[in-house]
Every structure is written in structure tokens, then in C-alpha cells.
Amino acid sequence: LSHLDKRNTYLRMLWVLRDPSRVQGWLLLDNYPPTFALTVMYLLIVWMGPKYMRHRQPVSCRGLLLVYNLGLTILSFYMFYEMVSAVWHGDYNLFCQDTHSAGETDTKIINVLWWYYFSKLIEFMDTFFYILRKNNHQITFLHIYHHASMLNIWWFVMNWVPCGHSYFGASLNSFIHVLMYSYYGLSAVPALRPYLSMVEEIHHTSTADSVLFDHVPDNMWPCDFPRGWLYFQIFYVVTLIALFSNFYIQTYKKHFHCASDNIEMEGEKTDQRCSQDHSG
């Protein structure tokens, strides 16, 4: 077989391994194009939104942000509680769990993971609020890459490995989001806004950690959880770590230069780039 034929054969084998029967008929999961189209729409808004807002006043959105952050805090807590409860009272192996041996527990995990997948669509609003508030400095490549990719990755997770050890990273990430979105809600208090940049960094770090910790046990305690997903997630977490490292280094350099400027200016008005509003 030629290289192209081998690749096509491999891709067909991957598609055959798809396990959509347990999510058949569920919203957005039957076919991939709707998820892809929503991602394209997201990217178009990210591209066009700042241009539209360029000569317009920022929108406060304070009340809407409070409701949004409260809603995502509650949803994240629900997902975290339901997954941990199902695993704790079910027959799941905490180190490595396959996708076809736990019966009712698998069903519970699948139901919660659909909400996790759908929450990635809801979280597109993070970026839209940045655009409306003209906080364009927060719309980094890392931010866009993470938001756009997670929705698509979890469509494939739900169609190939919708339970088993897929729960681990989702439960860890849901717990982090409880802290993050509750903190974002509190950021409506002006005195807390300077600390939001720290939360943003913690969010990106924990995102990478949750994906990494999701699959490290698979490598240490092998089971029937598909190995291909392990290799893909290792690749994905490497990209997140690389992007976050660059983000952290650039942020550190920026704060260092701002601190130096403050010392040199001795009380004069500092560059506005040194004091950014992170309340989005």
C-alpha cells in the first residue's frame, strides 16, 4: 500500500472505533459539523469583534457578568460533585478505568460529561465579554487556542471515550472552575480586581495540569482505556505547557518593565499598560 492508502486505512480504523451509540440523539453529538461551525463562528467573532468595538465605548456588563459567573460556578460544582460521587460510590478504578465495565456508573459519567462538553460552548462567552469590555489584552493566543480546541476535543471524547478515565481531567478542571468563576464573580468588587491576573494564570496552569494528570495514571497503570487518547492528550498538554510558558514569561517581562518604569518615573503617571482591568 502507498503511504496515502495506509493513512486512509488508519483513519477508517479510527472511525470504526467510534462508540456513538451511548450518546446517539444527544444535542450536538450526532455529527461533527455543528461543533466545527460553532468554533468557526467563535473565531470570526474573535477576529471581527475588536474591530467593531474599536471606536465604541466599552460595555460594562457588570450585572450580566455576575449572573454568568454565578451560573458557571454552580454548573462546575454540579459536574464536579456528580463525577466524584459517581466514581466514589461506583466501581471505578481511580488509577485507570476503561469505558465498558462499570454499567450504571458509566451512564452517570456520560450524562455529566455531556454537560462538561456543553460548558465549553458556554465558556465562549468569556472571550465575548472581553471583547465587549474592550479588554483585548486578555484575548491571547493561548486563550483562543484553549477555548476553541476544548469544544472540539470533547466532541471526539464524547463519541469515542465518553466515560471511563475521561472523567478525571474533567472533574479536576470543574473543581478549578468553581474557584475561578466564583472569584470572577467577586471581581465585581473593585478592590479585588488587581488579583484577577493571578487567577487567569492559575486557570491556564490548572488546565494543563488537569489534562496531564488525566492520563499520567494510564501510563503508570495500563488498562483497557484506549492508548491512542493517551498519546493525543500528551501531545495536547505539551502544546498547552509551551504556550503557557511563553505567556508567563511575557507577562513576567511586562510586569518587570512596568516596575522599572515606576521607579524611574518617581511618582509620575505610569503607562496605562501597567495597570490593566482584569474584571472580565
TrEMBL record:
Residue spans crossing the bilayer: 32-49, 61-81, 114-132, 153-176, 229-249
Subcellular location: Membrane
EC nos: 2.3.1.199
GO molecular function: fatty acid elongase activity
Annotated membrane topology: Multi-pass membrane protein
UniProt keywords, alphabetically: Fatty acid biosynthesis, Fatty acid metabolism, Lipid biosynthesis, Lipid metabolism, Membrane, Transferase, Transmembrane, Transmembrane helix
Catalysis performed (reactions): a very-long-chain acyl-CoA + malonyl-CoA + H(+) = a very-long-chain 3-oxoacyl-CoA + CO2 + CoA
Single Gene Ontology BP annotation: very long-chain fatty acid biosynthetic process
GO CC terms of this entry: endoplasmic reticulum membrane
PANTHER family: ELONGATION OF VERY LONG CHAIN FATTY ACIDS PROTEIN 5, FATTY ACID ACYL TRANSFERASE-RELATED
Entry similarity comment: Belongs to the ELO family.
Name the record gives this protein: Elongation of very long chain fatty acids protein
Organism: Oncorhynchus mykiss (Rainbow trout)
